[in-house]
Write a structure and sequence with these properties.
3 helices; 110 residues
Length: 110
Amino acid sequence: AHRLLPPLPTCFLLVATVLLQITIPQSLYLLAHKVEPLLLPSLAGGLLMALLTLGLGRPYGPTGAAAGYLAVTAFVGLPAVTLIWLRRRREWRACGLSIKAERGRSFSEY
C-alpha cells in the first residue's frame, strides 16, 4: 500500500496527462510542415518543471511534485503550444502552404 501514490497526486498526474493529449496533435501538425518552433518552449517548460519539482517536492512530497507538473503543463506548456500552433496554422493557411506540405513536399521545393 505504501508503493502507490495517494489519490490527490494521482489525480494531478492524470489531469496533466489528459492536457498533454491536446498538445500532441498540435505538435505533429507543426512537424508535418517540417518546422520545429517548439524547441524554446520545451526547454523553458522542462527547466521550470525541474525547478518546481525540486521546490515543491521537498516540502510537500509527491503531491507538490505532481502539482508542479500539472501547473507547468496547464499554464505554460498547453498555452504556449496552442498559441504557436494557431499562429503557424493561420500563416500557412493564408499562404496556402498547408495543402502543399500535406502532399509530401518540403518548403524548400517551392
